[in-house]
Design brief:
The protein contains twelve helices and 15 strands. The protein is an alpha/beta fold. The protein folds into four domains: about 1-85, Chorismate Mutase Domain, subunit A; about 90-170 and about 255-260, Periplasmic binding protein-like II (D-Maltodextrin-Binding Protein, domain 2), CATH 3.40.190; about 175-245, D-Maltodextrin-Binding Protein, domain 2, CATH 3.40.190; about 270-350, Alpha-Beta Plaits (2-Layer Sandwich). Strands 1, 2, 3, 4, 5 and 11 form a six-stranded mixed beta sheet that branches. The protein has a five-stranded mixed beta sheet with strand order 8-7-9-6-10. It has a four-stranded antiparallel beta sheet with strand order 13-14-12-15, sandwiched between helices. A hairpin with a 3-residue loop joins strand 3 (about 135-140) and strand 4. Helix 1 (about 1-40) packs across helix 3 (about 65-85) and helix 11 runs antiparallel to helix 12. The longest helix is centred in the N-terminal third of the chain and has 38 residues, at about 1-40. The protein is globular, with a radius of gyration of 23 Å.
């Protein structure tokens, strides 16, 4: 017992030093904030965040895991930014939605979060400066692209300034027993991601689409013999029991989110770029539009198409690739692309995310 007490005293002393050092760090942050205001610099700087996390990873010799270190510093940085200027972060969906969780994972608990009922509202609020940044889903590894987000990117003036990758775990929530469930509510994408599990474990149970998984949780909390597929945060919010966890069909089920802002980050040396373009209607046009990237050895990570909605069978193409659009190889590829396209728009270059929340 004596050794236990000694260790606890040492831990208390270390905690005192940690508090002193964090406050010393914050005093420097306040001074940085004053300089930023004078020079009209952005408060949140994605490229600085990436460099800081990379440096911390190199300094960490354990036993603390990289995930634990990043989680701790996420909140330290969130508190630091709030001292400079409390950020207003808009996100698509209600509280406890997966987009809300992704935003929390990116900006921490010291930001102010503003739920938005539509993806278009997130875009318009960033444009109108009613919020500092917006978070919207762009693609899921199981169900594919989020078409509404793609459509909004075509004409919006916002810039993609960061990306978030989050592992999506779905849970069956209810107040009744599993054998009593007659209806299951959730968002269409979520139901699709759990289709096989539902067929195997809830045969004959009616599935009903909801505008969000959080709204589904509220319905399940009010309607007898109903269940929802949603997050653990929604279970806490609506006092539902977790009947089954991790029920997604794909264990690696991951959703990618975009952070929308009004300014583009600088190059970091490990970036990603998103573009949108329209090609002339001719044989081999799409193939030809991809050749410049192959010739310049630029790695493509996503390609999607959407109808232009101006003319039948006319499409916009969305492309993601490794590198910043100001890097030499992507720059050359984009120059060639512009020569053959009616329209090319750089949606944003931003630090490439290698983490999965």
């Amino acid at each position: 017992m004596q050794r236990l007490n000694e260790l606890r005293i040492e831990i208390d002393n270390i905690d005192e030093q940690i508090i002193k050092l964090i406050n010393e760090r914050y005093r420097h942050v306040i001074e940085v904030g004053h300089i930023k205001k004078k020079t009209s610099h952005e408060i949140y700087v994605p490229e600085r965040e990436k460099a800081l996390i990379a440096r911390l990873d190199k300094l960490n010799n354990g036993p603390m895991t990289p995930q634990a270190l990043r989680a701790i510093y996420r909140e330290i940085m969130s508190g630091a930014i709030s001292l400079e200027k409390p950020l207003r972060i808009g996100f698509f969906g209600p509280e406890a939605s997966f987009t809300h969780l992704a935003a929390l994972g990116k900006f921490g608990h010291c930001a102010t979060y503003v739920p938005k009922t539509s993806i278009s509202d997130v875009f318009s609020d960033v444009e109108a400066e009613r919020i500092d940044y917006g978070v919207v889903p762009i693609e899921n590894s199981t169900e594919g692209a989020i078409n509404h987000t793609l459509d909004m990117l075509i004409n919006s003036s916002v810039k993609v300034c960061a990306e978030i990758n989050m592992r999506i775990h779905h849970n069956l929530l209810a107040k009744c027993r599993k054998t009593q469930i007659k209806k299951v509510y959730s968002h269409a994408q979520v139901l699709g991601q759990c289709r096989s599990w539902i067929q195997e474990n809830l045969p004959g149970v009616e599935t009903i689409e909801s505008s969000s998984s959080t709204k589904a949780s509220r319905v399940a909390s009010e309607e007898k013999y109903s269940a929802a597929i949603s997050s653990t945060l929604a279970a806490e919010m609506y006092k539902l029991n977790i009947i089954a966890d991790n029920i997604e069909d794909n264990a690696d089920n991951t959703t990618r989110f975009l952070v929308l802002g009004r300014q583009e980050p600088r190059q970091t040396g490990d970036d990603k770029t998103s573009i949108c373009y329209a090609i002339k209607d001719r044989v081999g046009a799409l193939y030809d539009s991809l050749l410049p990237f192959k010739n310049e050895k630029v790695t493509l990570t996503m390609i999607e198409s959407r109808p232009s909605k101006r003319k039948n069978w006319e499409y916009y193409f969305f492309l993601d690739f490794h590198g910043h659009h100001e890097d030499p190889a992507p720059q050359k590829a984009l120059e060639k692309l512009r020569e053959m396209c009616q329209f090319v728009r750089i949606l944003g270059s931003y630090p490439r995310s290698r983490d999965i929340l």
